[in-house]
């Protein structure tokens, strides 16, 4: 069975999507439509902007989403997912791919999500850090003993867990985790503490938008970030998508479950090869590839 997976924030690069636009037809039509829906020229930033412009959350999230869903759309009949999953933001790309959301509603939700997260980041200085080379339980236990907000946020693969929280708590946790034997504790160049309790204002803001969006019947299961289980029920998908903003991304668990449920091939749809790299740390022999036209 083919599992299609969709990357999140951090996979972006200047020039992404230019080839899809230059093909004309549906690709150009969807990019032009996106400029109108968003109210700014995102294609200009994606194709020829600066790294700094592209790194803005309000730009990055719709940019990665657009690259992923337009690529999937252009694959036509060759795009036949048996199961889908998306890393953080990528979950919305996956929901368009399995036809739970249409393109326009998906893009509007991505834009609202990005703006709500950016606002939440401005309330309290916060960040994230990648912890390399420790067992998950040790990282979790260390974080629970730190004063302030710091939690496990992204279970990316065995030995790589991203923590998220206030800047002072992250600094303290990194120091303790290095003492505990972490190979690296690397603060990430992100705007704030995604997938932590500090995103609660964004969760509340997005809850209303998701509740008022039509979610159709999925053509195949999505393995969602919050529970790493196959889901097809529209109401359950909505509830998990709302919870995702303040809950950890259980990517390791999702990949393990996909394989257990019979996935025979993993195809990454979108910019970069980050997700292919992560699954190789879970199962080195598992077949992976990038989607292409």
Would you write up a description of this structure?
A 6-stranded mixed β-sheet has the order 8-7-2-1-9-10, sandwiched between helices. A 4-stranded antiparallel β-sheet has the order 4-5-3-6. The chain has 2 domains: 2-122 and 197-290, Malonyl-Coenzyme A Acyl Carrier Protein, domain 2 (3-Layer(aba) Sandwich); 123-187, Malonyl-CoA ACP transacylase, ACP-binding (Alpha-Beta Plaits, 2-Layer Sandwich), CATH 3.30.70.250. The mean pLDDT is 96. The chain is globular and about 55 Å long. It has 293 residues and is α/β, with parallel strands linked by helices. α5 (57-74) runs antiparallel to α7. The protein is 47% helix and 16% strand.
Can you tell me the CATH superfamily of the largest domain? Malonyl-Coenzyme A Acyl Carrier Protein, domain 2
The helix/strand order is: EHHHHHEHHEHEEHEHEEHHEHE
Helix and strand content put the structural class at: alpha/beta
Uncertain regions: pLDDT < 50 for 5+ in a row? Answer: none
- Strand residues, percent: 15-25%
CATH topology of the largest domain: Malonyl-Coenzyme A Acyl Carrier Protein, domain 2
Distance between the termini: 20 Å
Biggest β-sheet strands, sense, barrel = 6 strands, mixed
Task: Give the CA-based shape.
Answer: globular
Mean pLDDT: 96
**What is the total domain count?**
2
Global Rg: 18 Å
Q: Give me the count of strands.
A: 10
């Amino acid at each position: 069975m083919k599992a299609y997976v969709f990357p999140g924030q951090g996979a972006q690069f200047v020039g992404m999507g230019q080839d899809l636009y230059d093909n004309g037809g549906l690709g150009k039509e969807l990019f032009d439509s996106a400029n109108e829906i968003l109210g700014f020229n995102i294609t200009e930033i994606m194709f020829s902007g600066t790294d700094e412009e592209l790194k803005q959350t309000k730009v990055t999230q719709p940019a990665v989403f657009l690259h992923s869903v337009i690529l999937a759309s252009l694959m036509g009949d060759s795009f036949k997912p048996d199961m889908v999953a998306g890393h953080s933001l990528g979950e919305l790309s996956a929901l368009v791919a399995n036809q739970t959301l249409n393109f326009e509603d998906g893009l509007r939700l991505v834009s609202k999500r990005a703006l709500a997260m950016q606002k939440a980041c401005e309330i309290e200085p916060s960040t994230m850090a990648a912890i390399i080379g420790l067992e998950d339980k040790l990282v979790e236990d260390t974080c629970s003993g730190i004063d302030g907000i710091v939690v496990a946020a992204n279970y990316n693969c065995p030995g790589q867990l991203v923590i998220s929280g206030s800047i002072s708590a992250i600094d303290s946790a990194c120091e303790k985790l290095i003492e505990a034997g972490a190979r690296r504790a690397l603060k990430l160049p992100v705007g704030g503490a995604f997938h932590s309790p500090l995103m609660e204002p964004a969760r509340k803001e997005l809850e209303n938008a998701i509740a008022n969006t039509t979610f159709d019947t999925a053509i195949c299961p999505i393995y969602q970030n919050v529970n790493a289980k196959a889901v097809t029920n529209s109401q359950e998908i909505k509830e998990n998508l709302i919870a995702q903003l303040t809950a950890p991304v259980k990517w390791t668990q999702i990949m393990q479950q996909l394989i257990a449920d019979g996935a025979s091939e993993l195809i990454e749809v979108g910019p970069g090869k980050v997700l292919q790299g992560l699954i190789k740390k879970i199962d080195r022999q598992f077949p992976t590839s990038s989607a292409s036209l």
